[in-house]
Design a protein that fits this description.
This protein is mainly α. It is built from eight helices and four strands, in the order H-H-H-H-H-H-H-E-E-H-E-E. The strands form two sheets. Strands 1-2 form a two-stranded antiparallel sheet. Strands 3-4 form a two-stranded antiparallel ribbon. The longest helix has 23 residues. It starts with a helix and ends with a strand.
């Protein structure tokens, strides 16, 4: 519901950042990045599968990564090459350092609403109310001080309102 009501309509910007807490989570994050190849929908699809397979992933990490890779058209060698990609691991580590040092993330999940940190799973329950209030506040501000810009995105060529 949150995605269709806020993200898909362009009212809220969604940014997903990995914060792997152990080597198994890092391997899963790397696989999702390899599967996606800079396609955000493929990436989120891979992450969804990884979360659904989380119990199996913790028990049989290598086999599960190969299984998920094959589901997404990768060979066993492709999965192994992905997991050994030092540049990808370094990028993941840099993203984690940014989250720790700059954003001050120290637990998962962590949400940011209007730049304020909100931690824990219970945030999602109140996210709709928070998003509604934030969207209305931005609309009031823009109506008074700024013209609304409509911009066409490259992907779907539909105009979107950028708040």
């Amino acid at each position: 519901m949150l995605r269709s009501r806020y993200i898909d309509t362009g009212k809220v910007r969604f940014v997903f950042r990995e914060f792997p807490l152990d080597i198994k989570a890092a391997a899963a994050s790397m696989l999702a990045r390899c599967i996606a190849k800079d396609d955000s929908e493929k990436y989120l699809g891979a992450v969804e599968i990884l979360f659904k397979q989380q119990e199996r992933l913790m028990a049989q990490t290598k086999d599960t990564l190969i299984f998920i890779g094959k589901l997404n058209g990768m060979s066993e060698q492709d999965v192994e090459a992905c997991e050994k990609d030092q540049a990808l691991l370094d990028k993941l580590a840099a993203d984690q350092r940014y989250a720790l040092d700059t954003l001050k993330v120290d637990s998962t999940p962590t949400f940011f609403v209007n730049g304020e940190t909100a931690e824990g799973r219970d945030v999602v329950r109140g996210a709709g109310r928070e998003a509604d209030a934030a969207v209305e506040a931005v609309k009031r501000f823009r109506a008074k001080w700024m013209p609304i810009r409509v911009r066409k995105t490259r992907q779907n060529k539909r105009p979107r309102l950028w708040l």
